[in-house]
């Protein structure tokens, strides 16, 4: 990756997360947290928020537990119980992998009424394949290409976009409260649980 692209990468995460953090509540669920980089960034800026960070990938959870020095996060590979409920939940780059319907049906019951759902993902539905290859520039994106191959990556990332995800979230029982696009490639969608 060139120096300029690396710089873009390191600018991108804080820009994205500044938009996410304003919606974080007192008890937050980071669903599909992966290696926990985003979780730990949010946790260090919201020390009084209790964060449950869930991912079914045990290796990633183990990595997250060993890598970040934040006291207010519990990393787990076991699906969180409904329990006392979350007043906010974020899914960062999970929808394109898991599919919106399944993800939302798992998260919705765990949230309190009026809880905030924060969705962050790609908005590149239908881009031509050659353009997609040029857009996949970050180290993490290139790693994914190597792991799953261009065909699968292309299908997975371009089958749905912001409007599809927004529709799924509204159909699942969330009312839209905010919607932002970043660099014409990513989106942040926020909704309030009404059902
Ligand atoms: C592209 S990674 C994003 C990780 C992290 N949220 C981030 O932004 O860095 C997608 C994550 O979705 C998780 N995932 C896939 N299927 C899932 C499922 N059924 N339930 C919960 N998480 C899932 C994967 O394990 C993976 O860590």
Structure notes:
The protein is an alpha/beta fold and 195 residues long. It folds into 2 domains: 3-124 and 160-193, 3-Layer(aba) Sandwich (Rossmann fold); 126-159, no CATH class. It contains 9 helices and 7 strands; from the N terminus they run αβαβαββααβααααββ. A 7-stranded mixed β-sheet has the order 3-2-1-4-5-7-6, with helices on both faces. α5 packs parallel to α9 (162-172) and α7 crosses α8 (150-158). S-adenosylmethionine (SAM) binds at residues 31-34, 37-38, 55-57, 60, 92-94, 97-98.
Give the secondary structure arrangement, pairings included.
Layout (H helix, E strand, L loop, with lengths): L2 H19 L5 E5 L5 H9 L4 E5 L3 H10 L5 E4 L9 E7 L2 H4 L1 H8 L3 E12 L6 H7 L3 H10 L1 H9 L3 H11 L1 E9 L3 E8 L2
Parallel strand pairs: 1-2, 1-4, 2-3, 4-5
Antiparallel strand pairs: 5-7, 6-7
Helix pairs in contact: 5-9, 7-8
S-adenosylmethionine binds next to helix 2 and helix 4.
> What fraction strand?
25-35%
The helicity comes to 40-55%
Structural class: alpha/beta
Looking across the biggest beta sheet, what order are the strands in? 3-2-1-4-5-7-6
CATH topology of the largest domain: Rossmann fold
- Low-confidence stretches are none
N-to-C CA distance = 45 Å
CATH class membership of the largest domain: Alpha Beta
Which ions, cofactors or small ligands are bound in this entry? S-adenosylmethionine
């Amino acid at each position: 990756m060139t120096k300029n692209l690396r710089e873009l990468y390191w600018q991108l995460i804080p820009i994205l997360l500044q938009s996410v953090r304003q919606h974080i509540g007192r008890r937050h669920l980071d669903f599909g947290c992966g290696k926990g980089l985003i979780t730990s960034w949010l946790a260090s800026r919201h020390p009084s928020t209790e964060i449950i960070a869930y991912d079914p990938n045990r290796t990633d959870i183990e990595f997250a537990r060993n890598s970040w020095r934040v006291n207010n996060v519990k990393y787990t590979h076991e699906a969180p119980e409904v329990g006392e409920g979350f007043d906010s939940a974020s899914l960062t780059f999970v929808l394109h992998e898991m599919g919106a319907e399944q993800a939302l049906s798992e998260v919705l019951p765990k949230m309190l009424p009026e809880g905030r759902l924060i969705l962050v993902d790609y908005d590149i539905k239908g881009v031509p394949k050659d353009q997609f290859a040029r857009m996949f520039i970050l180290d993490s994106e290139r790693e994914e290409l190597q792991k799953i191959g261009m065909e699968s990556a292309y299908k997975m990332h371009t089958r749905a976009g912001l409007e599809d995800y927004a529709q799924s979230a509204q159909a699942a029982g969330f009312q839209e409260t905010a919607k932002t696009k970043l660099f014409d490639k990513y989106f942040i969608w926020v909704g309030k649980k009404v059902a």
